[in-house]
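Q: Protein A?
A:
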Amino acid sequence: MIKLKFVNAVAWYILLFIMFFFALYIFPLFKKKKDSSYKQEFKLCQCPICTFIYSSVFKQQLTVCPRCGSYNQKEDSL
């Protein structure tokens, strides 16, 4: 049988208790870090007037060329 002093048993219990709650605190931080670095989707569009290639967000139906200011539809994308 393993002989264990009462003081050592209490120390191990406290140590494991602290490690358990530390793990509960640390693991969600790593998960949150992954979730917060989401990727925003972009699409390359080319202006038919000045032939400038720029990126636009997928949700937009009409895009504005940053160089000449003309409005372009989604079909005019690369």
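Q: Protein B?
A:
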Amino acid sequence: MVLYKGKARLGFTEMKAIAEQVKVPLVLHGGTGIADEDMRRAIACGTAKINVNTENMYAWCQQVKAIFAADTGHDVNDPRKVIAQGLQPVREMIARRMALFGSEQRY
């Protein structure tokens, strides 16, 4: 999934310096599109929260589009049915991210 042009560049040196100066966990806003290895490195530099909702919304939208594109998609007249069906790829995306971030079973 490519949502952005170019490669995200994170300031790992700056992250480490900030983490050493402040005694609170760092937050990475706009984590969608950042390579897995860079995510791991950011976590090692003190990042404790990573926002990645754009990829979740994208996964949901792609699933809902597929439902409507399918032959049976035109029979849907209850938005709750479509909303629920769109959540499966979001759950899968969240599970993958939790594994990557090392936050499985920590809720």
